[in-house]
Design brief:
- The chain is α/β, with parallel strands linked by helices.
- Among the domains are: 136-359, Leucine-rich repeat, LRR (right-handed beta-alpha superhelix) (Alpha-Beta Horseshoe); 373-440, EF-hand (Recoverin, domain 1, Orthogonal Bundle).
- The protein is 46% helix and 11% strand.
- The protein is built from 17 helices and 13 strands.
- The strands form 2 sheets. The chain has an 11-stranded parallel beta sheet. A two-stranded antiparallel ribbon has the order 12-13.
Length: 442
């Protein structure tokens, strides 16, 4: 990797080699049959980048030379290193085309980040920046904090896998308690513990712009979990919160329940794998009884049994005002009582979809064969002389060929298809085998 290889192995180009390689790329781009030549400003930017690469001793990234005047630039896994980031910064300060820049997994480290942020200080176009997997550490978080205090254009920031610890949480919390422009932040797979959770909880209480926050795969427990929940309690902007793979436990579940009781903005909450038991479910349900906004609740990989699943299902179906449409309990084996309750709930709430691992126990009598749900849909469409593709396209609002599971369930119910809750669950499990929450009908 550039800038981080053993002393005996040199990656620096021979004198003039970087410039020659870069010029050759520009010549090839401009000489392709049927292709238009690069605009003059692209050529000027290319020469500036090549000169910067020559000065720091790295070979220019041909991909960047080809795409520096597009809106989305993906430079992940390019081995830029600190020196490559420094060369990139020379061009970014005057670039007005790039809006989304991905630099994931480039071993940039704090040194390269320092140069990169200096270049970005003069840039007013980049809205999303991905810096995950770059070994930024505590010093990097300090540099980012200073940068975010002044930056008003960045809306999305990905900082996963950077070795951030509790001091890093303080740096970022200080910045985001004043910067309300960032709406999407990924801090997953770092090393935040209790103190880090406390800092981030204070940030949530003060922040008025953040809408999506990913804190999964950290070590936030006890006091940190309680502080985060306290911040969520007064936060009025956050819509998506991923707290999976931490260690909230039942103490954190109690605090989350209190937060959900009064929070009126959160739509999607993931608390999978958080050491929450049936007692924790009971505590969360107390908050859900008053909540009227949450749509998705993911609680898989917790210590929940079918008794806890029944408590949760009753809690979210007791009041008509409750909006939950997707409940993930995908590691829980359920029983007849749960399925009966789910069937009753589905009659009044057709959009409700519950994931569970399966039914426990054995059935002495062979159950009557149920028609395949896809066959039912196909027969339904054949009767109306409609195509299966059109059936899915009618649900596809943005033309992405991907449909949220909740939208699919709602559409099937509205269309009047004769599918019960068990058949709907079987159908969704077939169409969404990877449990992504979306159906890809390509």
């Amino acid at each position: 990797m550039l800038g981080d290889t053993p002393a005996w192995y040199s990656t620096a180009p021979l004198p003039g080699e970087g410039l020659r390689n870069g010029r050759r790329v520009l010549e090839l781009l401009n000489s392709q049959p049927g292709s238009e030549k690069s605009p003059p400003e692209a050529t000027d930017g290319g020469h500036l980048y090549m000169q910067a690469c020559h000065e720091v001793g790295v070979v220019p990234a041909s991909y960047f030379l080809r795409h520096m005047y597009t809106t989305h630039v993906d430079l992940k896994h390019h081995g830029l290193g600190a020196r490559g980031a420094r060369a990139l910064a020379a061009v970014l300060q005057n670039n007005t085309s790039i809006t989304h820049l991905s630099l994931e997994d480039n071993w940039i480290e704090a040194e390269g980040l320092m140069h990169l942020l200096q270049g970005l200080r003069g840039n007013n176009s980049i809205q999303e920046l991905a810096l995950s997997d770059n070994h930024l550490g505590v010093r990097g978080s300090d540099l980012l904090s200073t940068f975010l205090m002044d930056n008003l254009t960045l809306h999305g920031l990905s900082l996963a896998h950077n070795g951030f610890s509790d001091p890093s949480a303080k740096h970022l919390a200080d910045a985001l308690s004043a910067n309300f422009q960032v709406t999407k932040l990924d801090l997953s797979h770092n090393e935040f513990c209790e103190k880090g959770g406390e800092y981030l909880g204070q940030m949530l209480a003060a922040n008025e712009g953040l809408q999506e926050l990913n804190l999964s795969w950290n070590h936030i427990r006890m006091k940190g979990a309680i502080a985060l929940s306290a911040g969520l309690r007064v936060n009025g902007m956050l819509k998506v919160l991923d707290l999976s793979y931490n260690g909230f436990g039942n103490e954190g579940a109690l605090a989350l329940g209190e937060a959900l009781r009064v929070n009126s903005s959160l739509l999607h909450l993931n608390i999978s794998c958080n050491r929450i038991s049936n007692e924790g479910v009971r505590l969360i349900c107390k908050g859900l009884e008053s909540n009227e906004t949450l749509v998705v609740l993911k609680m898989s990989k917790n210590a929940i049994t079918v008794e806890g699943a029944i408590i949760l299902l009753r809690g979210i179906t007791r009041r008509r005002e409750n909006k939950i449409e997707e409940l993930d309990l995908s590691n829980v084996l359920v029983n007849e009582q749960f399925l009966s309750l789910l069937n009753s709930a589905s009659a009044s709430r057709p959009a409700l979809h519950v994931r569970y691992a399966g039914k426990k126990g054995f059935v002495a009598k062979k159950p009557s064969a149920r028609p395949d749900p896809m066959r039912i849909i196909q027969d339904f469409l054949d009767e109306r002389k409609l195509r299966l593709l059109d059936f899915f396209k009618n649900m596809d609002r943005d033309g992405s060929m991907r449909i949220p599971v909740s939208d699919f369930c709602r559409y099937v119910a509205v269309a009047g298809l004769p599918l019960d809750a068990a058949q709907m669950d079987s159908l969704v499990q077939k169409l969404d085998k990877d449990l992504t929450g979306t159906i890809d009908y390509r």
